[in-house]
Amino acid sequence: MDQFGCLIICFIVQNFYISLTGVIGDQRFYMGFQGENNAGEAWTLSRTNLTFTIFKFLRSIFGSYFATYIFPILTTCTIFKLIYSYWKYIPKNIFLISIFLPHYWVWQSIASKESITIPISFIIVFFLAKFLYEKISIYTFSITVILSFLFAFYRLHYAISYFWILILTILIIPILKNEDLVKIKFKNYLYVFSSIFLLLLLITFGVLKDFSSNAIINIFLKSSEYFTLFPNATTTRWDVGFLSIKDIFSNLFWGIPTSIIGFTPLEILENPKYIPSFLEGIIAISLIPIINIKLILRSKKDFKLRFSYFFIFLPSLILILCAHYPFGIFNPGATIRFKQNIVAILYFYPLFLLTFSKYNLRNLNNGK
Prior knowledge:
Shape: globular
Strand content: under 5%
Distance between the termini: 31 Å
């Protein structure tokens, strides 16, 4: 039923939503409507050329219309296959709301890089969450690592957070076998995490102030150049200040929330057709604290989850939000598109941690 629902969303996206909003991204290019790709780089060196090659292969078999349905179909089958055995343990209401956020399927229903990275990121976080509680085969682990590198090929700035989860998971699994961790309370982890976080801030903006400031400003400069290439873009924010660290931090209080929501209230008043996107964004950002609260409450009963929350998930969440900030502040349309690369960490990874925590408890109670 969930698969059928996902495909209905994709059909609506292809036939109604795109016509209504004009959101097509690079679909005309990847579908060959603008001619063949004549770029000189090999597809192994260019993510654009690789994506073009993939969709050229798909449209040669299924045609230009049906080729865009292949990735959504693969995604729905993958989701069903992965979560079927654990469905009774997953927080169903939050999971269904997360998985049925419209733009999660918009960018899988459009020929784009996101149609490739979205299912990849889902698979990565599923197996990394499972790896904390269960043994997975060398084959499965190898596939997860390969997919992580493929994701990095497409979205390197976001891949840092995924690799944090991957590397810390490998390092932490032996530590989680130490039964003394049961004695360490939630507040103790909070003190340690806060201390480390403040120390890193001191080093970054104290000891390495000049280097860090220049690096951050350059990132925002490159992001601004990328999103302001087209002067006729109707949703580009031209008045965002980013010429100093002070500018960047002064925009932080609205920039990070807006990078998740997409459009601001003023922008939807000026263009009411974006009201559905704004409402979706409000739901999307509301899910983050809700899921975190559920994780915190559950972690008080599960020492593995307690340890993993502070040393794996929370750092990865901070990293991904910081990585998305410069890509989510200059153009709300691009914000919503790029956000689909991080929803696996925002929603699905913590939900899978909750799922396997409950599943593991069931096995312990049954003596398995």
